[in-house]
């Protein structure tokens, strides 16, 4: 146990841990070892001297009255205690230093195995704390392996993270050495350590990529109000201007360069940008773009909306395999029902129509 302080500092440096936490952990391991070898019911103390860099172990023995014929290991009668320290009295505690070298190989093996377990626990706690604050944030790392089930593994620092095959965009594949971006989806402790899962299919991944590409989003001039995705196929992004900027033009960029960069990062996913409106009818109408909507009737209790449009706009509203209306429904939070019988549309004033759709 020579130079225990150096060992503490070495563990902390190698594993990226706080020195004080490693010190407390080692003190706990040594007390566990003493209880394991000498007795669970006994009381021990540990002293780590920062100057001498040594560790001292003590058994704490209680001074009791001379009333017993036999005494427990953790007790000493006052008549014997005063021979050691003449100032002690009943109720005091005497500290006896334990010679670790005399505890044998079993004690050494216990310390070695328990240290490994406790160091892993500290590293896991650090990883859990670190990644818990990074949920829904973007990470980028190099692929270290891809297993037979197409799960993709990356290393961030000393932590192995995984993109499960189901959280990968359909049709994309990775190989060792590729640098890829993903969103931190979840982090939790398991029996094997800390399980950090990434995703490339979540709508928040799209939003994070847009934030990187568009300075106006980073500086708060444009706010992302929501998004919906069918990964690898198409997505819709709702934005609104906070400052005096064109939200759609800023997101798309000159000649579409910004939105193309985001789409390329999503394996060619097509992205529709929609200007958000607090007026729900207007928002639903815009969400169904490129279809031109005549009127929207909302049932708030059922969270449904009936959308009125001309017959020639119906296929545009629905989209190929229903993709457009599905995305619009996900984005707005309403179940959308298409009605191409204009004659059934509610009668509203010209002023009301102007408020909604101009």
Major beta sheet, strand line-up: 5-6-7-9-8
Second rung of CATH, namely the architecture of the largest domain: 2-Layer Sandwich
CATH topology of the largest domain: N Utilization Substance Protein A, Chain:P, domain 4
Mean pLDDT: 89
Category by helix and strand content: alpha/beta
Indicate the proportion of strand residues. 25-35%
Q: Figure out the total of helices.
A: 12
Overall structural domain count = 4
Find the CATH superfamily of the largest domain: NusA, N-terminal domain
Identify the overall geometry: elongated
Tell me the name of the CATH class of the largest domain.
Answer: Alpha Beta
Gyration radius over CA: 33 Å
Low-confidence stretches: 348-354
Total count of strands? 15
Distance between the termini: 80 Å
Protein described:
It is a single chain. It contains 12 helices and 15 strands. β13 and β14 form a beta hairpin. It folds into 4 domains: 4-130, N Utilization Substance Protein A, Chain:P, domain 4, CATH 3.30.1480; 141-198, Nucleic acid-binding proteins (OB fold (Dihydrolipoamide Acetyltransferase, E2P), Beta Barrel), CATH 2.40.50.140; 202-276, K homology (KH) domain (GMP Synthetase, Chain A, domain 3); 288-358, K homology (KH) domain (GMP Synthetase, Chain A, domain 3, 2-Layer Sandwich). The protein is elongated and about 105 Å long. The strands form 4 sheets. A 5-stranded mixed barrel has the order 5-6-7-9-8. It has helices spanning 4-15, 19-38, 78-84, 105-132, 203-213, 215-218, 247-252, 257-265, 280-287, 311-318, 323-332, 350-357, and strands at 43-49, 54-64, 75-77, 93-98, 138-146, 152-156, 159-163, 179-190, 193-199, 222-230, 234-241, 270-275, 295-299, 304-308, 335-339. Helices cover 37% and strands 29% of the residues. The protein is an alpha/beta fold and 358 residues long. α1 crosses α2 (19-38) and α9 runs antiparallel to α11 (323-332).
